[in-house]
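re: the backbone from monday

yeah here it is again, tokenized this time
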């Protein structure tokens, strides 16, 4: 039957899984691809997902203990969904989904580890434990797909088929030929999940007294309410709230620079490739990335954007001063245009992944 079930421990499923889901439905048909997800904050389930498997059980984001205690119930829900749908392939998104999925491995059921983020924690002991759980679960994996080209060397000791599947922009995503810009100041934007408040506060504290810069933050997240309330009186710092994915084109293209510098002390951030990197190439708008990360090093070497120490206010201030004075801006935009010509779109990027899925359907494990 060639059936595939994607496992995600949140709802709505992340944008990367949605893209994978859409691509697989296009290949195998809507009756043969489903996802099972955990609606942890009582969100309204969209009508378009009425045929999907969605567990409604409250487990607030940020409360790790509550999540751990609730994982058994989600596993039972996954198992019931697998029994009902009878998929030949499980795609486990992130290490926690993989840990649950590996108990459902059989001779005739394959597991794909969708490695969109590395296990991470600021606590070294917890990080060690998470990495050991991931390593234990990898025994049952048939294929790993990496969201970053910098991940594979970390898994070189595992004799598992590996493929890089980065979050390239789909060819169907709009590119606006003309953008109305009736403002006079320089527009620095943040587009995405509003978290890591310490980093964003550093940016706000640098720009709040500079009338030449307007900092606009698009999106919601765990730190949205806190930051919006704390900086409500700062005129050149604006929080717009939730946005639609189809608005990303106008948000990106109306910006002068997009902030994409995440905490470089985080284990995952050191190796990850932000969606903003691919969007920066697609829209030709430079981003600011964190130093001491592999992406930051790559961007700096190829002059495809700016890098900064996100923990250092003086460094942020100096970088913004340099950007305002046009240092390297023209060269960076020229390099982004050249990179776009050579870059793949999502439809091209997903083809090798689907080829690997086809091979999994055609083989049985010798258990």
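seq for it, each position gets an aa:
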């Amino acid at each position: 039957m060639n059936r595939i079930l994607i496992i995600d421990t949140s709802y709505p499923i992340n944008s990367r899984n949605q893209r994978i889901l859409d691509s697989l439905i296009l290949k195998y048909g809507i009756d043969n691809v489903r996802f099972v997800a955990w609606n942890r904050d009582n969100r309204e389930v969209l009508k378009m997902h009425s045929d999907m498997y969605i567990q409604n059980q409250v487990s607030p984001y940020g409360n790790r203990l509550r999540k751990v205690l609730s994982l058994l119930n989600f596993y039972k829900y996954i198992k019931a969904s697998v029994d009902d749908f009878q998929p030949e392939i499980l795609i486990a998104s992130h290490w926690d989904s993989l840990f649950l999925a590996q108990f459902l491995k059989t001779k005739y059921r394959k597991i794909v580890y969708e490695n969109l983020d590395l296990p991470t924690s600021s606590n070294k002991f917890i990080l060690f434990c998470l990495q050991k759980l991931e390593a234990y679960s990898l025994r049952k994996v048939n294929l790993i797909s990496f969201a970053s080209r910098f991940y594979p060397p970390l898994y070189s000791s595992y004799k598992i088929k590996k493929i890089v599947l980065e979050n390239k922009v789909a060819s169907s995503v709009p590119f606006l030929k003309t953008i109305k810009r009736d403002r006079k100041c320089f527009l620095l934007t943040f587009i995405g999940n509003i978290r890591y408040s310490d980093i964003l506060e550093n940016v706000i504290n640098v720009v709040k007294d500079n009338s030449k810069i307007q900092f606009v933050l698009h999106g919601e997240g765990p730190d949205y309410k806190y930051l919006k309330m704390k900086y409500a009186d700062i005129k050149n710092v604006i929080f717009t709230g939730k946005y639609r994915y189809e608005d990303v084109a106008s948000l990106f293209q109306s910006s002068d620079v997009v902030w994409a510098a995440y905490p470089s002390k985080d284990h995952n951030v050191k190796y990850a490739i932000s969606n903003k990197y691919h969007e920066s190439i697609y829209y030709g708008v430079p981003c600011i990335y964190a130093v001491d990360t592999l992406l930051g090093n790559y961007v700096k070497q190829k002059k495809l954007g700016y890098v900064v120490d996100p923990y250092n206010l003086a460094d942020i201030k100096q970088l913004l001063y340099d950007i305002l004075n046009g240092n390297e801006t023209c060269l960076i935009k020229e390099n982004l245009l050249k990179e776009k010509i050579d870059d793949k779109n999502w439809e091209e990027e997903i083809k090798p992944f689907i080829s690997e899925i086809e091979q999994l359907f055609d083989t049985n494990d010798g258990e």
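The mean pLDDT is 92. The longest strand covers residues 33-39.
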